[in-house]
Amino acid sequence: NRANKYSAEELLMMRTQDMGYVLQKSQSEKK
Question: Is pTM beyond 0.85 here?
Answer without folding.
Answer: no
